[in-house]
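Title: Prediction job returns without error message
Component: structure pipeline
Severity: low
Priority: P3
Assignee: unassigned

Description:
Job completed but the reporter wants confirmation the result is attached to the right record. Sequence as submitted:
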Amino acid sequence: MLLAALFWCFLSYCKVSVTVPTFKQRGDSATLTCDFDLEGGKLYSVKWYRDNEEFYRYMPKLRPPQHAHLVDGVKVDLNKSSARRVHLRDLTLRSRGLYRCEVSKEAPSFHSAQAEAFMEVSYFPREGPLIHGHERLYAPGEPLNVNCSSACSFPAPDLQWLINGQKVTEKSLLQPYAPEVASQGLLVSTLGLRAPATPHMQLSCMASIGPHRRERTVIIEINSSSTTSAFSLTMVTLLSINIKLYEKLL
């Protein structure tokens, strides 16, 4: 998914737009583009910033015209970069941020225009979320006490419960928890479910970061002895009522 931003500079008759990937995974590469129209003017420089810190510039009058600055989390591949694009490799969680392209015209005006867009860099392991509390037997109608926890990720994943394929939207059945900080700055999300237990109950927990999804499904076991006992108690009660009615008739 890409995010494009457009900025018009009316006084200097120039136009600048950037295209930045919305979501990237740690270890990926990314190509950011900066398109501009100088309306007949000459290019003086193109500068790229991550969170207001310059990491790349292109100045056609210099030899070589490209230069990359050392910025934590931003590794520029000069061989794949130019005046209108910059290629980043080996993204880390520190690569996330607001990327801005600033284009300046040659003298005498030196007018400039800029555009920016945010890139999120995530870490989402292959492991699905874990569900705790489903192992025990539940009586029919007993509130569940199950929690779903994501694997260590960044940013904190969104969690969602489904019962028999249907999303749980009733807030009173959900127990949210604040994300926990794990090693290397990663985060763990946890969401509890307190819905009443029913026979043939299938629970699914889905963790998501942007377009990425992980899911785990379990089956809730109902205590059959509780069901049998309840059924037996009902039959005994009905039998007792019938006997009393019969005695009255006699």
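Comment from assignee: result matches the submitted record. The chain has two domains: 2-122, 130-223.
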